[in-house]
Amino acid sequence: MTRKRTIGRFRRSKQGGWEGEINTLSIQRAIRLVPNDNRVSDNAPAFRVMLGWQHIGDAWERLSRTEPPREYWRVRIDDPFCPLSAMLFPDAEGMTAQLVLQV
Q: For the segment 12-35, what is each residue's pLDDT rounded down to a tens digit?
């Protein structure tokens, strides 16, 4: 059985990405997912995870296996103390999303 924990809440930004806050035991920060305009291949990340002006991770587009398939993003944050692997799930309207820790 896998447990899912919501560690962040996000809203759409005016620039086409996402902005919100991560809350874990070691991280409590506002971050942004900024569209990656320099994608050189389909495997390149769709978003860059930013803390201020610092690049701290990436996010890749995925489709769920449910019917109908839903779009979400697999997020990797390179924290030297606690690297995070999570998934960002937008709501039905696509205006807010939850960041769920992958356990």
A: 999 899 999 999 887 789 999 999
SS3 annotation, 44-102: CCCEEEEECCEEEEEEEEEECCCCCCCEEEEEEECCCCCCEEEEEEECCCCCEEEEEEC
Q: Positive or negative CA dihedral for 65, 38, 15, 85? A: positive
Cβ 26 vs Cβ 82: under 8 Å: yes
Residue with the two structure tokens 């390179």: 78
Indicate the residue type of 38: N
CA 1, CA 6: separation in Å to the nearest integer?
17
